[in-house]
């Protein structure tokens, strides 16, 4: 859930139509036509990526006159299915996966169960990846993948490139080779599994 | 030495700096170190075995840093760089927050000059990575004249910029394309420990390859996919890739301690340098960290131009002080009181998912946020530690930061520094104050806290040397005899 208070605003006289803003917007709220960037106000989630990467400083963030809140009501979805999807992605439903906005795994799972199929759709609905836009991309991709949805990267943009290794995919030889150099791979995997399998009552179920 | 001899006039804190991430410096009316009852402690008086420093020092301190950098740079092999080649000098934002920023900027200038002189190469560029404030290093590049120094070839790079896949032994990770768009890369960093809660002083010298030089996918791997003590392997995986090894020329580090710049350390072997950095990080910083763990109750003051978790006192960042109730270096403890993995594992009811999660440092009775920046998700701090923010302008700034929409939901505002401190004294009942204001060479604290720290320092020093340091180094596979050989 996110309170959207900001809106990207393009200074048309400064914009040169370079399209960097298009490539970094996690929700495709800005696009360039006729060599000028334009923002779809309803779609902008106020992350500031376009403002922060515009090479010409043509975009500024302004306060919305009418802030609004986005989010998915988790209670409308089967909690068993939410847990099943989260556990498949090695996440606890209650765990926070977006540190800036505070979105939890269950909300993303609910968005997917509700029909969202792409990372940008999920960001638009929940607000995940509209703060720093950096740290939550992997759990987001993991949940989409766990739902059996094929991830298709937009080759024309830089929104995201692909899924990466997890504690559950590390090659055994790597684990053995480096565990004496301070990398606690197995112990951390065990810790993450404990988190994943803690139920709403706070009991560890595995 | 007695209390009086060891308590000095407060050290002048780092000045507020103009930035899009902080309030206008003119709005910072009072620094807490100027208030009654504050003193400074010099770190070399608390821990006499800390090595001498080049900076802070006299008027020639920066020139001495420059000289040390040049001398160290003369010792590395640069024969792989030919006059017709291109070289990217890779920097990270954090270096510019150390000791006023000039020492790191001077290192970057020295690298360019020495490489040019020794190799004849003219196409030398600066690529400066960031944390989460994508314009941050652009600001530093301008502030320290690096754009001019690098002949207009200095840019800030961000984790959402165009990426490049890097094949590693654990799978595909992603770097920032502009970091690697040269024939050679030079890794320009420092030994300051900063985020011990994240990297746990494991491969700290390698970390930027998985962070400030990396795309968001890689950084997310670090902070979400591997676990709190395995995270930094993302950096090693990238560094060891054939792609990065084919471009790596050498590393040039500012050798820092909690009390200042000790010298420069350049090496073609990053792992040898890493072992030395591990020793510095564990021994020198470990003593201050452990001493902070002895504080029983206090008011923590944020008064430094950088985001909430990164304000400094005696080389220790506030984020680490919030974990000073535990031993952050001890690898047997999986979750520090604050790290992103810990934050992730708090339930909706505010309680941790795992019962054995340590709480945020209970010694911090209140946080007075006199001056600190936005640009880093900080709601977890105001949610778990009573926080008073000075001035409505700061509160408003946080309300417009996409990473901190909720920070002021939990903090209260005071109109002035004086009122904020009075409120903190009244409510907490303690007059022990530690100020995170970047005071160089020492720390600004209240007299009452100074007495406690003076009393505890000798025992802490002995404990670190004899008990903790051997354990910490063993946990990291660092052999002290190799370190001695490398000196």
From TrEMBL, chain A:
Q: What span is annotated as the signal peptide, if there is one? A: none
Keyword match Nucleotide-binding: no
Protein keywords? Iron, Iron-sulfur, Metal-binding
Q: In this entry, which stretches build a coiled coil?
A: none
Give one Pfam family: Fer2_BFD
Keyword presence, rRNA processing:
no
Q: Which residues form the 4Fe-4S ferredoxin-type domain?
A: 6-35, 36-64
Instruction: Report which superkingdom the organism of origin falls in.
Output: Bacteria
**Can you name this protein?**
4Fe-4S binding protein
Which species expresses this protein natively?
Caproiciproducens faecalis
Automatic annotation (TrEMBL), chain B:
Q: What is this protein called?
A: Uncharacterized protein
């Amino acid at each position: 859930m996110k309170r959207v208070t900001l809106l990207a605003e393009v200074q048309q006289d400064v914009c040169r139509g370079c399209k960097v803003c298009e490539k970094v917007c996690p929700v495709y709220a800005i696009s360039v036509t006729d060599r000028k960037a334009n923002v779809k106000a309803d779609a902008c989630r106020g992350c500031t990526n376009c403002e922060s990467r515009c090479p010409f400083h043509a975009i500024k963030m302004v306060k919305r006159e009418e802030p609004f809140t986005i989010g998915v009501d988790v209670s409308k979805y089967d909690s068993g299915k939410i847990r099943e999807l989260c556990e498949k992605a090695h996440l606890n439903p209650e765990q926070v996966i977006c540190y800036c906005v505070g979105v939890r795994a269950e909300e993303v799972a609910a968005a997917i169960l509700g029909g969202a199929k792409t990372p940008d759709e999920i960001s638009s609905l929940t607000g995940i990846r509209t703060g720093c836009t950096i740290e939550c991309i992997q759990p987001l991709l993991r949940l989409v993948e766990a739902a059996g949805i094929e991830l298709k990267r937009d080759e024309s943009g830089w929104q995201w490139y692909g899924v990466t290794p997890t504690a559950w995919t590390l090659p055994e030889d790597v684990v053995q080779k480096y565990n004496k150099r301070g990398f606690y791979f197995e112990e951390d995997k065990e810790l993450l599994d404990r988190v994943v399998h803690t139920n709403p009552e706070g009991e560890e179920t595995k | 030495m007695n209390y009086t001899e060891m308590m000095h006039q407060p050290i002048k804190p780092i000045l507020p700096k103009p930035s899009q991430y902080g309030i206008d410096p003119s709005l910072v009316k009072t620094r807490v170190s100027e208030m009654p009852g504050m003193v400074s402690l010099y770190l070399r008086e608390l821990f006499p075995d800390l090595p001498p420093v080049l900076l802070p020092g006299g008027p020639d301190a920066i020139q001495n840093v420059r000289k040390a950098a040049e001398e160290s740079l003369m010792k590395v092999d640069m024969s792989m760089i030919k006059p017709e080649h291109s070289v990217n000098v890779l920097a990270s934002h954090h270096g510019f927050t150390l000791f006023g920023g000039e020492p790191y900027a001077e290192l970057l200038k020295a690298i360019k000059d020495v490489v040019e002189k020794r190799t004849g190469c003219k196409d030398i560029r600066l690529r400066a990575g960031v944390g989460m404030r994508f314009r941050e290093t652009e600001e530093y590049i301008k502030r320290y004249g690096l754009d001019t120094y690098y002949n207009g070839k200095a840019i800030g790079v961000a984790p959402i910029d165009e990426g490049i896949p890097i094949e590693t032994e654990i799978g595909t990770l992603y770097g920032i394309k502009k970091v690697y768009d040269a024939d050679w890369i030079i890794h320009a960093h420092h030994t300051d420990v900063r985020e011990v809660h994240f990297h746990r002083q494991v491969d700290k010298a390698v970390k930027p390859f998985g962070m400030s030089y990396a795309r968001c996918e890689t950084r997310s791997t670090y902070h979400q996919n591997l676990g709190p003590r395995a995270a930094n392997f993302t950096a090693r995986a990238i560094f060891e890739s054939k792609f990065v090894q084919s471009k790596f020329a050498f590393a040039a580090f500012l050798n820092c301690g909690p009390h200042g710049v000790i010298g420069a350390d350049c090496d073609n072997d990053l792992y040898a340098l890493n072992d030395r950095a591990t020793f510095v990080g564990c021994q020198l910083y470990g003593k201050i960290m452990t001493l902070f763990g002895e504080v029983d109750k206090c008011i923590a003051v944020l008064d430094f131009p950088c985001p909430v978790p990164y304000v400094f006192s005696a080389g220790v960042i506030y984020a680490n002080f919030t974990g000073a109730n535990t031993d952050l270096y001890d690898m047997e403890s999986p979750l520090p009181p604050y790290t992103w993995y810990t934050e992730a594992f708090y339930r909706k009811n505010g309680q941790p998912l795992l019962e054995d999660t340590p709480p945020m440092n209970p010694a911090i009775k209140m946080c007075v946020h006199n001056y600190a920046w936005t640009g880093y998700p900080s709601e977890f701090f105001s949610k778990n530690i009573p926080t008073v923010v000075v001035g409505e302008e700061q509160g408003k700034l946080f309300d417009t930061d996409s990473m901190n929409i909720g920070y002021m939901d939990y903090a209260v505002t005071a109109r002035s520094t004086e009122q904020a401190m009075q409120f903190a004294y009244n409510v907490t009942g303690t007059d022990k104050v530690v100020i995170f204001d970047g005071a160089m060479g020492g720390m600004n604290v209240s007299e009452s806290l100074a007495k406690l720290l003076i009393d505890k320092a000798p025992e802490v020093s002995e404990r670190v040397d004899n008990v903790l340091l051997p354990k910490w180094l063993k946990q990291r596979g660092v052999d002290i005899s190799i370190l001695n050989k490398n000196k």
